[in-house]
Amino acid sequence: MNGPTPSAPRPVPPPRPARAVAEVRALVEALPDPELPMIGLGDLGVIRSVAPAADGVLEVEITPTYLGCPALPAIVSAIRDALAASGHPEGRVRQVLSPPWTTDRVTAAGREKLAAHGIAPPVPAPANGPVPVAPIAVPCPHCGSRATRPHSPFGPSRCQSVLRCTACHELFPHLSAL
Amino acid sequence: MTTSTDPAPTAGTARVDARLAVHLLRLGDDALVLGQRLCQWITRAPTIEEDMALSNIALDLIGHARTLFTLSGRVDGTGRSEDEFAFTRSDREFTNALLTELPGGDFAVTVARQLAYTHYAALYYEALAGSADARPAAFGERAAREVAFHRMHADNWTLRLGLGTPESSRRMQRGLERVWPYTAELFDEDEVVRHLAAAGTVPSPAPLRPAWERRVSEVVTRAGLTVPTPSQQLRGGRAGLHTEEFGPLIAEMQSVHRRFPGGRW
Questions:
Q1: Residue B14: is its pLDDT beyond 60?
Q2: Among A11, A98, B201, B238, which residue has the least CB neighbours within 10 Å?
Q3: What is the predicted ipTM?
């Protein structure tokens, strides 16, 4: 369960001019998600805020998708690198669990990119409580048919399930509504 | 493992609350031990989809344990890491409910164990989301959504096996009977929980039991099966007294750490 911890200290980069907060935010939001590289962390809805904390240190607040998401350490380390590269080597990453991440946080642009890569974007997230037995029909990202049915609730990554289209017979992943 | 986040910069959160730390550790132990048990199905599940399902559920549970352990270490003021909780405690120091450590056995036993645990965890985490303490509340809110997914999986398999063939139905019934003597412990209330519940910090699991029985009975009945009425209820996990099968499970989980103490990659 060890996270990737470098055994040797990182080489000290030459000091860089600190970029403005809005620029850093754009940079961080554009970082690709390790498991869904077609959409950035911003489009995934993982970045909550980029702002100086009370002690003046630039802080990036993130909302983890799943608590056990194996991509999380890579995401945190990519953000730290981006902070250092933009002149904020002391910058921090902080996890915020509440309100929880849901697939409703995926932006419209993110949904388009997912669909363009054959991943059906998430249908509206269920309210807290029992998961509905008959989920909302997920349109096939290949032919658009709504005649699709669940194949496996667990897919290529923790956040995806697999469906089958009964019109074009393709199997396709779906970003599971959560 | 190193935590993947930096601590919150506010120093006021260092308030020591030994009871809350104990309780968070119990919840974390439940999640870690059950997650470890589910990992034992990897490459052995009945179908490749099921291999994915059980390993994904295990991943979620281990994620819950990581969050709970880190929080417990912060709340008790020691700053102990998730690794220290998972890898440096002896079997007697684990406080998971016995249900979570039962061997997977027949696949139907695993399904029955998942049915019992996920319905309990869903109810408990939903209640935890209403905690007066923002830290466990945030975890409960998040974890409840994930566990709802696990519960759906357990419900579906209970129905599939119960309504499948006479053989699958017989084995599912046997699975329920195997795990049911271990379910009451999930709802036990002791001094720690009573104190925390009175302060509104965490809910007591005891009042959730009727709802759990109702929800589980509904699924079991729909699957054409009978809710067992065990002649005895076994306890001990919360006090560190475990089943015979627990030692090997923990030994396997801690083997890499024991061989390479402090090792990192």
A1: no
A2: A11
A3: 0.81
